[in-house]
Amino acid sequence: MAASSSNLDDDIVVLEVRSPEACFDDSVGIERRISEIDAWELRDEELFIQPENDRIMKIRVHRNRLIEHSTYFGSLFGGGFKESSLDYLIVEWNLVTFMETLQFIYGGPLHVSFTNFVPLLEGALFFGVESLVMQCKSWCVQTLSSKKMKISGELLRQLIEIWNFVVDSGLHVFLDLYTDFLALNFGEIMHCESFKELPHALLKACISHPLLTVHSERDLCEALLNWLENNCQCSKFSSKIGENPFDILEKVRIGLLPLEFILGQLWVKFPSIVASFRTTTIFDHISCARINNHSDIQVGYLESFRLRLTQYSEKLDLSGCQQVTGMMLYFSLFPPGTVDPRTFPSSFEKTRDIFLKLKSERQNSVVVSGASLHRSHRMAFFSDLQELNFSCCWRIDEGDIIRWLQLSSPSLRVLKSSYCSQLKVSILDRLSEACPLIKAVDLSVDVSPVAQKVSVLQISREQYLGSQTFSNWKRWSQSKLSNLTNLSLKGRTDVTDDDLIKIGALSHSLSVLNLNGCISLTDYGIGQLLSSCKQLRSLHAAWTSFGQHSIRELLSDSANHNNSRILDHGLNSDSSSSLVELDLGGCKDIDRTLLIKYMMSAFSLSYLSLRDTNFDDEGLHAFKGTSLEELDLSETLVSGRALAYIIGRNTGLNVLKVRGCKLLSSYSDWPEVDDPRSFLGNGGLFEALSGIPSLQELSIGWGLSGFFLETLRPALRYLKSLTVGLGGSLSSQAWMLLPEICPSLECVSVCFQVVSDEGIVNALQNLRYLHTLELQHCLGEITRHCLSVNAYNLKSIKLDRVVPWMTDDDLTILTQNFRSLSQLSLTGCKLLTSGAQHIIASGWPGLTSIHLEDCSNITVHGVSNLLECKAIQNLFLRHNGSGIQRNFISEAALKFPSLRTLSLDLCDACDDGFDTPHYLERLSLCTVKLARCKFERCAFDFDGFSGSAPRIKHSQTIVLEWNSREIRTTIVMERL
């Protein structure tokens, strides 16, 4: 492409390019660049001169070509300047950038990237190479049109650099391109380390963008809070008059934030913002369980409840947003400005009518129908939405969820609706029609307190008015859940054998199943499901009736799996199970012989839980697997020697739970093993544990010596959770070594241990990641000095009978130094008064769990200030003073919109009992536990003449449970 000329020398000018910095690391880099220049279409050898060093290079170029493509050189050579007659010119510019610009002028290849974009564009603007500017723009359009690019921290820094440059250069067309790209990928960039480096103007532009795409409003708010923490003190804001960094929070749709987040994390960081927000109508809607209509909200605030969804959204997380209703779902289908909020309730009904009519008339698939409705009625259609989380959204009706999915998101693959007791299991049938691609469904709730084998004295059931005695699977014989692979029904007391049989008939591809706590199921029903689902890889059936029939089905599956392996791969005839995860905790009805036989075939298990069963050494020895990552044998009969043998074969173990195993310290007769070399040393448990390279969780009691930390030092480097129970010993020296040996600890829980101020203070000060501390029934010198430590990261604390000296003043100090608490448990603090309620409510308004027991006078005047802790999910009040009002259960359900579990004692009732709410009045409440005590006098106190007070002793517990069908009342002997 060299310019044609009869006299090249007249058309040649020598450019001496001087770079302000070294552009090549060595001579090899220079030679590589020279070879690239040689590849241009410049065939005259005289056009190139060897570089003098790594900062200076002389290049002979055509004068006319420079004039033609560069306004800078055009003005320089043809504008009457003295340079117009020179044939030797010095140019000071980055050598690499200038050579790439020159290469582009001569028609050579141009390789634009985020790394060299700014230098190239800067050079193109300075030298006036308009075609290069257009090439950079074209590259931007093509590159940034890829909406789902993997964004690293380094790439984000480069994008920030580019944005700053185009702002300074006034290139608004580039501003729009980069703002669009960052807004669409905001859900990814806000997790980058360099997110805090975003300029305020860019951040504000992104979060104001109509296509801002994030997974949840909580994620967005957390990112903005972190940005403010890193930037609000910077001097750059003080120098800009009128710029307020906190104005970015105005873009957060606060009506979509979980209550626990507003009163917890947001309050801790910016209490003044939360204080002003608590006076608004939006907060009234979020914090009151009675409001179910957005028509109760002022019109001006309605947009604060619009779901943040765009056509690019792949995931929507509304977990914890109990304020979300069906009307909000429908309202979010209409683009902003297309519906009048003042008349929307009628539009809501009209929307449902349109859908029902369309549904009855349609002949095509749901996707086509949804799209046509979108076109006809200007509704949004989220075809990319694949994951939806409705956890704790108890106000949304099952029918509204299904209709909304059919209208907007028929391509959904994952639905999480845990802690939504209003949903029936039969929703699976309707999901198969609304979302035929559904793969995973989570319908789990809290496990019933009577799921563990308790002594039941009486049980009664009362069905809700209009409720049916069977599941409403209207189309189950026609519909198919052929794509369903993951299903969690954890804690569902309304699941029956019929439900399982129908699920098995619909879902032959099911591979992950959680039935933990499904106490209404029988052994036969579980076995029937197992016989239908031959592709199961994960089975969780703890605290169920899993027994002989079910274990035989697992053995049958092992035999079938083995035959398949023989036919497909020519493997040996040893039977093997296909399960990778198995949880049978609390299932004591399994035949010991059958369980041992199954253990012999469970080669592939990576997760095994047999806690609280009669599992012993013989069963453990039968297990031949070598892939265990998690093992839970708590409250079983295994010995230390048997456990050491298994650990020696499974060095990839990450989680080990053996608390309550009383035989760990004994070394009874051990069956003969196939390979004596499998023993480590003398079969010592701690020698075996020391060979595990990355143990992350350890729960142990019996058999634990006080000096185990030194022995296990190599294995505990990555330990995150440590639980030491009865029978173990965590010495004072061990407490001092915890931060050194286990620097990653997040949770420390000890029971029946000797503790001291020095050890606890050392842990609180030096364990950087500690968020949970539990001290239960411990002895030792614990003083007020422990409360003076600033433990900002601590989220949960349990002090059970270890601080009997705690007063209201001590509790105040605790609120000041442990500000981030979300869970509080105090037992045996008899010096606390009713004023402690105000201290707790004002110091920790975002608490989600409160456990107060044997704190004599806290509720002596009733429960009032605690009602200000609006985010409470679990409330436990027992033996704190007999002043709790009779209607407290209904009042608690009304005042705590997220309350799921309530535990009281009849001793604390001021009117000898509590009223049971109607099932419509219980709102989010699912479980109530009422303890009942009896009074006993000393056997030698005849007629009460000794004058001693009678002793209070637990008598029984009344458990009320509401599910989607009925209220179940159970009376048990145990204290729950």
How would you describe this protein?
The chain is α/β, with parallel strands linked by helices and 976 residues long. It is 33% helix and 14% strand. The protein has 33 helices and 27 strands. It has a 24-stranded mixed beta sheet, with no helix packed on it. α29 (732-741) links the parallel β17 (721-724) and β18. α13 crosses α14 (271-277), α21 (497-506) runs parallel beside α22 and α31 (808-817) runs parallel beside α32. The chain is globular and about 115 Å long. The model is unreliable at 1-9, 41-47, 361-373, 563-573 and 668-683 (pLDDT under 50).
List keywords for this structure.
alpha/beta; disordered N terminus; 24-stranded mixed β-sheet; 3-stranded mixed β-sheet; 976 residues; 27 strands; single chain; 33% helix
Q: What percentage of amino acids are in beta strands?
A: 5-15%
**Major β-sheet annotation:** 24 strands, mixed
Shape: globular
Helix content: 25-40%
Q: Structural class of the secondary elements?
A: alpha/beta
Could you name the ranges where pLDDT drops below 50 across 5 or more consecutive residues? 1-9, 41-47, 361-373, 563-573, 668-683
CA gyration radius, whole angstroms: 35 Å
Question: What gap, in angstroms, lies between the N and C termini?
Answer: 88 Å
Total beta-strand segments:
27
